[in-house]
Amino acid sequence: MNxxxxxxxxxxxxxxxxxxxxxxxWLHRKRDHGNLLFIDLRDHYGLTQCVIENNNKFFKTLxxxxxxxxxxxxxxxxxxSKDTENLELASGKVEVIIDTIEILSDAKELPMxxxxxxxxxxxxxxxxxFLDLRRxxxxxxxxxxxxxxxxxxxxxxKLGFLEYQTPxxxxxxxxxxxxxxxxxxxxPGKFYALPQAPQQFKQLIMVSGFDKYFQIAPCFRDExxxxxxxPGEFYQLDIEMSFVEQEDIFRVVEKLMVNLxxxxxxxxxxxxxxxxxxxxxxxxxxxxxxxxxxxxxxxxDITEIFKREDVKFDIFKKLVSSGSKVRCIVTKNTxxxxxxxxxxxxxxxxxxxxxxxAYFTIExxxxxxxxxxxxxxxxxxxxKEIMKICNAEEGDSIFLSCGKIQDVLKILSVARNKIASxxxxxxxxxxxxxxxxxxxxxxxxxxxxxxxxxxNPFSMPQGDIDKIDFEKPxxxxxxxxxxxxxxxxxxxxxxxxxxxxxxxxxxxxxxYDKKQVEEKFSGMLNALSYGAPPHGGxxxxxxxxxxxxxxxxxxxxxxxxxxxxxxxxxxxxxxxKVEDNQLKELGIKIITKKx
Length: 595
Hints:
Distance between the termini: 65 Å
Largest sheet: 8 strands, mixed
Strand order of the largest sheet: 6-9-10-24-23-22-19-12
Radius of gyration: 30 Å
Helix content: 25-40%
C-alpha cells in the first residue's frame, strides 16, 4: 500500500464513511473554532475537509503550521451534517476526523496566498510561479491545456496524419521576426538559429514522400510580448499535406476546430462552415484582417460624398482633394443616446493618437437632417446618399474618420470594438471563426517604398503561372490564408511554391538575386529540384486556442512558465550571464555598450 495516501483529495464520498484513510497534500487553509480545528487539504485532484479535536496530541502542531506546508493525515471518514455539506466539492458530503499527521515539508511565510483568486502584480506571480500554479484557476487552465493537446493529437491521428519531429537547431532565415541565435563551438564564428517555425522542414517532409504531417511544435521568435503573444517561445499545431488545394486544408482545419471547440466549451460556434472573406473586403468592412465577426458593426467608404457641392464640411473636403479617404461606422438606432456617449467615443479616439471621430445622427421630422456637431454640413440629398451607401436609417448614427488610408483603418478597426463594447452588442458566449483569403503576394515597405513579401515567401501565386504579370507585383495574389476567431489570428497558412524556377522569379521581385536565394535556401531548392508534390499547410497557435477555450484575456494565464514583458524568466533568472571560459570556448567576446 502507498505510504502517503489511500485516496486522493477529491475521491472520498458517502460510500467511504467509517473507513480509515490516509491523505497527502498541501494545507490549503485553516479555520480555528476553539475546540476544533478545520483544515482543507489540497492535492492535484481537489480538496477534502479534515477536522482535529483539541485533545488530539497533534492539535498544537497543526495550529502552528503555516499554509502550503505538505502533510499526510490519517483518520476516519465521517458524514457531514446537512447544514455543513459543501456541494461544490466532490468530497463535500464527508470529512476526515484526524488521528495522526505527518509533516512532509514545512512552508515559509508566503509571498502571495494560494487560497482565493485575488489579483497580484505580474512580477510576484512570475517570480513565484510554482505558487501561482497552485491556485485553483491557474491549475485548471494548465490541466485544460494538457487535455486540449491530447485531444488534438487524437483527432489528427483520426484524420490520417502522423506526427514527426523537426530539428530545433537550424539555420537563420530572412523575413519574419528576429532569430534566437546559438553559437557553434565546433564551428567557430558560425551560429545556429532556433526555428521561428518548422516551415522548411515540414515542406521537406512532403518532398520526402510523406503525405500528412503534424507536430505540436515549439517555435522561437525574438519579438516583443503582447496579451496574445509570448516573448521568446510558443507552441503551434504544425500541419502540412501533399497533393492538396486550399479547400482541402480548410476542410481538415474546420473539422478539427469544430470538434475541439465543441468538446471543451459550451459556447455556440456561429458558423461551422467558416466564412471566407477576401483581404480586400475585410479591410473595407472591418479595417483589419483580424475581424471579430461577433461584432455587427461595419465600416463603409463614403469618400465620394465629400466631392459633392452640397456637402460643406470643408476640413474633410480639403483632405479628400489631396488624396485622403473617409470611412465611417454606422450604429443602429442610437438617436436616444446622450451627447456624452458620442463625445466620449471622440475623446477616446484622440487618446489613441488619431484626430478623433466626427459624428452625427440621422433624424427625420419633415426632412432628413443630421443632428450633431457636423450634421449641419450635409444636405438632405447627401444624407440620403450616405444612408444608401451605409444601409443606414433614421435614428442611426455615423462616426467618421478622414486621413491616410492606413491611419483611417487603424483607428476604425479598434473603434468598431470600442463602440460595440460600449453598446454591449458583442455576445461573449459565441465563437466566430472565419478565413481571410486572397492576400497580396507583395506589399510596399512603408519606410523604403520597395516591394517586399507581404506574407510567406514560399507561397504559390494565384492564377496561370505562365501569364502572371511580374511587372505589376502588387496585383499578384497568393494562395495564403489566415484563420481568425473572435478577432484573434490563430494562424497563417499557404499552398506552397514547389517550383524552383518560379521561386527564383518571386524572390527577384522582392530584391533577392539568385545567389542570395541559393545561399539562404539551398536545402529547400535542392530538394524541390528532385521532384516535389504540390503541398500546403497551416500552423494554428496552441496558446491562443487554449486562451480562447479557457476564456482568458492573456496568454500567460494558460502557459506554465511564461516570461515577463521584457522576455525575462523571473523564477529561473534568465537570461543570465555566463562564465568567461564558456564564452572563450565559443569564441565570443562581450562588448559593453558605452552610454
